[in-house]
Amino acid sequence: MSLNLTQRQIADPELLKIIYRALDEYHLSPELLAVKVTESTVMEDRSNAFETLRRLAERGIGIAIDNFVTGYSSMGYLQKLPVDLVKIDRSFISGIDRSKSDFAITSALIQVCQSLGKTVVPEVSSSSCVSSIATRPRASCSRRRSSSSSPHSPRIRRSR
User: Fold this and answer.
1) Residues in CB range of 28: below 8 A, 6 or more apart
2) CATH class belonging to 1-83
3) Where in the chain do CATH 3.20.20.450 domains reside?
4) For residue 23, what are the contacts with CB-CB under 8 A and spacing of at least 6?
5) Three-class SS string for the chain?
6) Which of 13, 24, 40, 76 has a Cα-to-Cα distance from 108 of 20 to 30 A?
7) Which is it for strands 2-4 and 34-38: parallel, antiparallel or unpaired?
8) Is 21 a residue whose pLDDT tops 90?
9) Which residue has the higher pLDDT, 1 or 126?
10) CA distance linking residue 90 with residue 124, whole number of Å
């Protein structure tokens, strides 16, 4: 089960209590929950978002960052954020079948994420991205993601 969080929700000092209480009330294991935040949500208030995500991760809740590489991204944040899944934005991936530079950058990002133990999900509407990356040496995608409402979202597993 996943929960999309907005900037306002991340900033809410009651958020952790609300999530923990819901898990307790419904007798759910934290490992069954993943929270998803966009890259811009995290970067709006880095210190608060980092702390909130860290505390959720400590409880065993999966963390996914959505729309990665659309503005604020830095490879350093991949190392600092307690993120299990990185969803690369569609606009960044769309040219990899046609552009060597787009392919090189996307492949490098995937390799960095995977070497840090993170699952990588390209946000695409067709499988051409996955096929392209998967058939080229030293690059792969963990799973195709067709839309944000897809019931086939990958299960997030803590690697720490």
Assistant:
1) 1, 22
2) alpha beta
3) 1-83
4) 29, 30, 33
5) CEEECCHHHHHCCCHHHHHHHHHHHCCCCHHHCEEEEEHHHHHHCHHHHHHHHHHHHHCCCEEEEEEECCCCCCHHHHHHCCCCEEEECHHHHCCCCCCHHHHHHHHHHHHHHHHCCCEEEEECCCCHHHHHHHHCCCCCCCCCECCCCCCCCCCCCCCC
6) 40
7) parallel
8) yes
9) 1
10) 5
Which pLDDT score is estimated for 69?
65
- 120 residue type, one letter: V
For the chain, the farthest-separated pair of C-alpha atoms sits apart, in whole angstroms, at 51
The amino acid that residue 98 corresponds to is R
pLDDT in tens, 131-158: 455 445 444 444 333 333 333 344 434 4
Joined together, the tokens standing for residue 3 give 């929960």
Tokens of residue 24, six digits:
């307790």
Q: Give the position of tokens 């209590």.
A: 17
